[in-house]
Amino acid sequence: MKGAPDSSGSGGAASRRIVVRGLPVAPGLAVGFAVFHDEPDVDVPVFALRPDDVEGEQARLAEAVKEARTQLHEVEERLEIQVGAQDARIFSVQGLLLEDPAFGDAIRERIASELINAEVAVRDAVASWGERLAGIAAGSERDPVADLRDVGRRLQRILAGHPRDQVDLTEVGGDQRAILVTRELLPSDTVTLDRSRLAGIITASGGVASHAAILARGLGIPAVTDVDVSSLPARGGCWIVDGGAGEVILDPTPDDVQRAIEKGETFQRVRDELMRDTRGYARTADKVAVELCLNVETFDDLPAELLEDLRGIGLFRTEFLFMERTYFPSEQEQYEHYVGALQRVGDREITFRTIDVGGDKPLSYLSVPHEPNPVLGWRGVRLSLQWPDMFYAQMRALLRASAHGTMRIMLPMITNVEEFERCREIMEEIQDDLRENGVPFNESVQLGAMVEVPAAALAARSLAERADFFSIGTNDLSQYALAVDRNNARVAALYQPFHPGVLQLIRMVIDAGRAADKPVSVCGEVAGDPRAVLLLLGLGLRAFSTSPFHLPAVRRLIARVTLEQAQDAAREVLELDRGAAIAAALHRLVLVYAPELEPFLAPVSDASAT
Description:
Helix content: 40-55%
Radius of gyration: 25 Å
Number of helices: 22
Distance between the termini: 25 Å
Strand order of the largest sheet: 1-2-9-8-4-5-6-7-3
Oligomer: single chain
Strand content: 5-15%
CATH architecture of the domain at 311-448: Alpha-Beta Barrel
Shape: globular
CATH topology of the domain at 311-448: TIM Barrel
CATH superfamily of the domain at 311-448: Phosphoenolpyruvate-binding domains
CATH class of the domain at 311-448: Alpha Beta
Largest sheet: 9 strands, mixed
Number of strands: 18
């Protein structure tokens, strides 16, 4: 059962103590009193129009859109003061959705063709677009469906004449702070929260990459999701939220409360210290240089100061330019987009991954056949090679943009040498054409392979003879090697990035790169896990690309260990034959070298400790 409560303790008051486990989304510990919030649905009036009423109803919609834009601008300005421009731009994304001609036309067309009022047209358009965006959002780090629902709710409230809603925490009196319990927290809900009263957040849905989770992390509010909030006792009382372990303790003991307060204070102190220590080149304790880069899909969400003293962007996901539109962007549009990105990083480098869509990440305007197993189907470079017009346009745009900065080009989902060689041939054909036409480009642009298919890892030595560099995508590599859909709750426990078989594949790629003198980096989730960083350092990896959120903890771990210590750690754990045991051993070693990182580590399961 999702987020099922486990009873703990025995006898007397201790028998009331209940531990509920969920998914950790924002680290830290908080003590407070539960406040339940159930966002009421907007009461949508339904009435039929006469043909003569259509123009007036569309004008009413236009006024509502104008007011919604004003509100979003105000929210963005207020949030920028609280958490900075990076997270505040969530609401500029919503503004772009409001201005999307296709979205607006869909609502106006419903009003005209179905003779329905604007509130109903908005409701139906949001439902229709939500189904399309759900497929596009699969596997991404954004939550466009939540944005869509948020925009739809805002428009409906304006059209219905309802005041702006706000989560009410006033029932917690005095100096007490609130633990907010709700089914879903949309971005606009998060902004209206009274931070002086809010201690933690518990939701039924949302996910690690949801905007609410991003904002909670930015605001420093511990949060746990994937909890069956309907099964929680609808009563007050003191609760504890552990956003690092993904646990909620109902009716904790006095000892629980004291420990939570102490750990919460320690976490906040270390977090502040790590954030101050983010700048500067990463070096091990014995001064071995380690390259740190960032994973991004747009520079709209990245403050310039984060790029200081970093090599640059280790993974730029180009597909989001395609996903944010309702048509294929032209070569010129792509060129301008890539040049803009290069200008943002100055003399630093960007590794552009070519479009990675198809399968479980379809484009709404790209017709693809139904696939019974899309994750193993028509996606990544497979789609690019079978849609040469799209691939040629992107490669031309990238090569033209290379004249304006330092870049590398990376190919996703490479399975065999033949695929890579064909992509190299296409790149060389385009380079010849650009030379003949006098179009400037960087002649030394490197072409690399993203290793995320086990067969590519097994053939890494042959692939290294053709590729200029490797980047290991550990998310898909683990998923494919273990035959586990990590988004499927029924088999999620089998998804073990520290499984010995997965580690052997990663090691093979690192060794192949070293033998061919080709750079190797990791850009999957493990690049942000200090435990994995310790192991990979010991295996010979010297480049990591991770999200801005994980950067401080990774940098601190690197600074706390010597290369010899990392190598000893790798030798020790690779003698183990269970992923859980490897994770537990690395967990222990990280705490030996950098005990202050404990709040930033995922919890070790009981099975891991044995």
